[in-house]
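Troubleshooting: if your tokenizer reports a length mismatch, compare your output against this known-good record of 126 residues.
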Amino acid sequence: MPLPPLATAADLAAALGRTFTTGEQAQAEALLGQASAMVRAYLRQDITRATTTDTFTLQRSDRQHLASPFDHRTHGQVLLPQRPVEEVTEVRVNDLPTADWWLDGSVLRVRTVPWQGPRGRTNRRR
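Known-good structure output:
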């Protein structure tokens, strides 16, 4: 489903202080749709208010790659793909709800993530 244009033909007509004919109205709508698609593609953002449910793989916050003074207090982080992020209502780790997280701009930081060992290996004590 295509996203709505970032401005309507009525918005454009009001900004220009004029009334469009039927042909101009159709042309304005087509051009605004194209311009909106170009802006979204360039920004890689939908720029449309929406509620989404997404699943992400947490990235480790290693000390050698600290980008923020808060990174040392986290075990995982996710850069949320759409901005601005207005609200996160629930965070689940390994399908269990957790309250041990905070939102830092567009980065969701999770303090406690249970480590399950390296992928593809079984941890055994000797």
